[in-house]
Structure formats: structure tokens, C-alpha cells
Amino acid sequence: SQQGEEDPQALSIQEGENATMNCSYKTSINNLQWYRQNSGRGLVHLILIRSNEREKHSGRLRVTLDTSKKSSSLLITASRAADTASYFCATDRGSTLGRLYFGRGTQLTVWP
Amino acid sequence: DTAVSQTPKYLVTQMGNDKSIKCEQNLGHDTMYWYKQDSKKFLKIMFSYNNKELIINETVPNRFSPKSPDKAHLNLHINSLELGDSAVYFCASSLRDRDYGYTFGSGTRLTVV
């Protein structure tokens, strides 16, 4: 069954602005991962945050995790037109190897 | 030097036909997966293999049969294709260690007419 739910479904911003996407999930998790998918391409792994971590950084990406609220956020700072893509969160419940549950994604459009 | 490669990229076929999609990874990963992405971009796992052994077999029609000749390859064979099988199929791989992201192939867009 579906696990992650991203919000908003679509986000449109100007270059240089920050983009924040949220993800909510329903059950306990082992870790939560964020992926990017450019149109017509495969998913690219961006960042993984473990259930015992609260915040993680990677370049212009900042991910937070609040297990009490069962939610995560992905912040992209100083966005660029090349950041235009769909962003998915995926949760690993830890119960069965490889059972990653994906949300439906947030479509981010960054205008030059 | 593509990490996870799947072929073909596009597949258009008639209802009732049988088709196969191939996947290969050169990352040395021990676990491979097939995911299906529908028209609304929802991704759902279909199968998972670890060292050639089936680990996950979601509720998928038995017309879909995965085959893993070795841990670097995971192929997907589909019998008696139906219109509802139209989707993008992604192969992915990872290491058994859970704290590791997946590497996805570029997808196979299957259209059943």
C-alpha cells in the first residue's frame, strides 16, 4: 500500500528561491529517502535519513525528519532551472528487505 | 559505463503478446528490483531479488515472471499482455545494507495496444 504522501503536488518558483516539499507517512520506518525524477528518466537517489536522525544536509539540499509527526521535508536552497523535476519520498519500514514505499511526488518547476 | 541499464527503452505491442524486459547492473549490488510507475507517477514495487533469490513478490498477476540468471541481471517476462499493463517499468539495484539508496535504470515505457 502507498506509504508516503508528498505535499504540495506541484510547486512553481523562480530561480534563486527556496523550494520546500513535505512528505507524510503512516507507519514506523527504518529510514526515509528522497529521489528526483527528470521527465522521461529514472529516479536518482538524493539523500537518505535514518529514523534516529533529525536533519541531514547534502549540498543545497536539507532534509528534516520528525518521527513523532511522521513527516519529512526536503528544502532546496537557491533553486536553479535544472532543479525542475519530480521529487519523491520513499520510506523503508525495515520489515522486508527492499520494500520501499513511494509517494506520488511533487512536481517542481523552477522558472529562469 | 551505465550503472543500471534496461532494454528496451520503449516497447509497443499488441494485446495478448508475450514480451521481455532486460536489466543489468554493473555496480556489484546484491539486490535488484522491478518497479511499476503508472500514468499518475505512482511507483509500486513488483519484485525483489537478493543474490538470485526471490525476496519480494507483491500482488502481481502471475503473467509477470521475473528471472535472475545471476545477481547482476534481473529480467521481467510478461505473458498475454493486457491494456492495463501499459506503464513505465523501472529496474533498480541496491546493496543489502538498508541504509543505502537505490540506483534506478532509465525505465521501459510499455504501451499495449
Overall 3D shape of chain A: globular
Strand and helix order of chain B: EEEEEEEEEEE
Looking at how many chains there are and whether they match, the oligomeric state comes to heterodimer
Coarse shape of chain B: globular
Poorly predicted runs of chain A = none
Helix proportion range of chain A:
under 10%
List the chains of the largest interface with their residue counts. A-B, 29 and 28 residues
Mean pLDDT of chain A: 91
Helix run count of chain B: 0
| Main sheet characteristics of chain B | 7 strands, mixed
Structural class of chain A: mainly beta
N/C terminus separation of chain A: 38 Å
Distance between the termini of chain B: 34 Å
- What integer is the average pLDDT of chain B? 91
Helical residues, percent of chain B: under 10%
Order of helices and strands of chain A: EEEEEEEEEEE
Molecular structure report:
- The complex is a heterodimer of chains A (112) and B (113).
- Chain A is mainly β and 112 residues long.
- Helices cover 0% and strands 55% of the residues of chain A.
- Chain A has strands at residues 5-7, 10-14, 19-24, 31-37, 43-50, 55-58, 61-66, 71-76, 85-92, 100-102, 106-111.
- In chain A, the strands form two sheets. In chain A, strands 2, 4, 5, 9, 10 and 11 form a six-stranded mixed sheet that branches. A five-stranded antiparallel sheet of chain A has the order 1-3-8-7-6, with no helix packed on it.
- The mean pLDDT of chain A is 91.
- Chain B has 113 residues and is mostly beta strands.
- Chain B is 0% helix and 56% strand.
- Chain B is built from no helices and eleven strands.
- In chain B, strands 2, 4, 5, 6, 9, 10 and 11 form a seven-stranded mixed sheet that branches. Chain B has a four-stranded antiparallel sheet with strand order 1-3-8-7, with no helix packed on it.
- The termini of chain B are far apart.
